[in-house]
Design brief:
There is one protein chain. The chain is of the alpha/beta class and 323 residues long. Helix content is 27%, strand content 27%.
């Protein structure tokens, strides 16, 4: 089976590696254009492009696939490459471009998407972050037949995995990437034998995982300790939960619910105590959160005890205060 692969980040690279290891022929890869990255802001190829080049696979990087859009010449060149590839199917994973109808119709078996949620929950751009943030007990991967809607196509395969209290976005991402790679290989093998069954998504339970905005990183200490702890995990490594003390921005990387009794007159964000276990902070709903791993701007992630050796934080100070 000949497979065109469209994807950009690490999640997609894992899937491409699985397809190649399983012996599928991949004549063409589509990926986002190189972007500036790192301290020097030099152009950097995406993980998927790097993988394709390592395996000698042709790469197309159009800024758009709309033939009537802003970059018609790039779209036309991509169309010619797709047609020349004579693929049976296109596999799409976190590609980052909207596929117009001509792309959906180009391969004989259409386009299959690897989506990191149990559809129809968490359609959209940030399903892993939002599942942790919402306190979901499980998530998973859905292999979906793509249509013109936003993650609305028929489900072909689905497998769940629990979300543990220790899961960060990074940990869950890596587990779902491996699951997605395994499921897409299974789906293509079933498709080759005519054994892939499409099931429409249920109308109930639809939710949308909106793209993460960096502004969401700033913690609101009036939220409950449980909600803040989930956000800390959901935003690790990007964009990283943060708080302020005066002009200093502090990243929060690990926390846990504290059984310490919060004084009734404590302000939201007030540091209640500091000990060997961490920094206890007053939150909403009468709750207390213990911060255990923190980072100053330009510094490293540090356990609370090490962080405090270089940062003058004391009980009574109020996190979130900007002056």
């Amino acid at each position: 089976m000949r497979v065109i692969f469209a994807g950009t980040p690490e999640f997609a690279r894992v899937a491409l590696e699985h397809l190649l290891a399983a012996g599928f022929t991949v004549p063409l890869v589509l990926s986002q254009p190189d972007r500036p990255a790192g301290r020097g802001m030099k152009l950097q190829a995406s993980p998927v492009k790097q993988c394709a080049l390592e395996h000698g696979i042709a790469v197309a990087q159009p800024r758009s696939l709309r033939l009537d859009g802003k970059y018609p010449d790039e779209a036309a060149a991509a169309k010619a490459a797709i047609e020349a590839a004579q693929a049976d199917v296109m596999v799409v994973a976190a590609y980052g471009l909207i596929l117009p109808q001509w792309v959906l119709d180009a391969p004989r078996l259409g386009c299959l998407n690897i989506h990191a949620s149990l559809l129809p929950r968490w359609r959209g751009a940030a399903p892993i972050h939002r599942a942790i943030e919402a306190g979901d007990s499980e998530t998973g991967v859905t292999i979906m037949q793509m249509d013109a809607g936003l993650d609305t196509g028929d489900m072909l395969l689905l497998e769940a995995t629990p979300i543990t209290p220790a899961d960060t976005q990074a940990l869950l991402h890596d587990r779902l990437a491996q699951l997605g790679g395994r499921l897409i290989v299974q789906a293509l093998r079933q498709a080759a034998g005519g054994r892939l069954v499409a099931t429409p998504q249920p109308a109930e339970g639809v939710s949308y995982a909106h793209k993460i905005d960096k502004a969401e990183a700033l913690i609101d200490w009036s939220d409950s300790a449980e909600a803040i702890a989930r956000r800390v995990r959901a935003f690790d490594p990007f964009p990283g939960a943060s708080t302020q003390l005066g002009t200093e921005v502090i990243k929060l990387w690990a926390s846990e619910i504290d059984s310490y009794s919060r004084p009734q007159d404590a302000r939201f964000g007030q540091v209640l105590r500091i000990d060997a276990d961490g920094i206890s902070v007053a939150c909403g709903a009468g709750s207390v959160l213990r911060l255990t791993t923190l980072q100053r701007a330009g510094g490293k992630r540090l356990p609370a005890a090490d962080f405090l050796r270089g940062f003058a934080l004391a009980p009574g100070m109020v996190l979130g205060a900007t002056a």
